[in-house]
Request: fold
Amino acid sequence: MVATRPGFAVPPELGYSATMALDEDLGIDEGDQRVGEPRSREDSPVDQSPSQRSASAARPASVAPVASVAPVSAAGRAASNRRAAYLPFAALVLLALLWGYNWVVMKVGMQYAEPFTFAALRTFVGAVFMFALVAALRRPLRPVAFRLTAVFGLLQTAAFVGLIMWAVYSGGAGKTSVLAYTMPFWLLLIAWPLLGEPVRGSQWASVVLAFAGLVFVLGPWNLHGLKSSLLALSAGFVWAVSSVVVKVLRKHHEVDMLSLIAWQGLIGSIPLIVVALLTATTTPTWNASFIAALAFNVVPAGALTWVLWLYILHTLPTGTAGISSLAVPVVGVMAAWIQLGERPGALEAVGMGLILVALAILTVREVRQGRQSAAGRPVVDSQLSSAASKDEAAPQATTST
Reply:
């Protein structure tokens, strides 16, 4: 949020012009003068010359004085600040609910359309909606670093969305949500050789726990459902690679994230449209359930969640924002259990639990690093010290599922 005066805040996407407009409406000028105070010594009747006072007296009486606006009390400002402090966390909860429940919505939508048809419709319509949102917020429309943006779109939208749709279509929505969110562990292993960011301390514990959880979830001794699990794991790996691409892109270029999301969505939707046209055997059933599922993917679980995510990153530490990564698969598993009857077996439940514990370890580590970095203290992790770099503090690429 863009701070204006105590007790007031303006969403960051509205920017400086909205801040000035709010000050003007409240009768507040530069310098924090009180409501109705003279804006300068020249405006004060005491300091005016006789000719200036005569000119002031000749002004039309119809001009309303700014002093008619009552100042905000200290108690009112405190209450407003308390409400504003809870908004980012409310956004975090809403984000986890929308992204988590969307795994169930995708499963419902694919009862009326084939997976690649649903993926193509979701991504293309979503990209068009994002461009409309970018234009409405007056963000830059011109793409930056088009080649990297295209690579990001082919990985993040075409490959990732295509794989998760195929995985959900072939298997359970809850199980797929957990396996797709193994992305942070793949990212740890990929970032080591490619970005020179070695795995340290408690990160190793999370990797080991995640690997053990994968063994229980995949159940290599039982091939039933293995195809869906491998597709979901592949989606998590592709998501990690796309995170590295966007990290490199943001390191070398100044980009507007909403504009980047719109362009990568449009570029990534093209291969999905081609695959859908080549593989489709039936057309979608355009009933109320399918339209509702598609609309939910485009607006609440698409554009709205991206706005929420950018707002969360703007107002909360990156590590705290990462908690939503932990909550999404939990919501996905519970929603699939309640609505779709996807009750995990004993070993699958153990495996999912181990993966979630591993995610929690990573999240706690990020939060602790963020607090220590903000306090100017060195980051210590299992007797290994490492300063949190600017790249590590940058938000990872995420996706609306």
Q: What stands out?
A: The longest helix spans residues 74-109. Confidence is low (pLDDT under 50) at residues 1-48, 378-397.
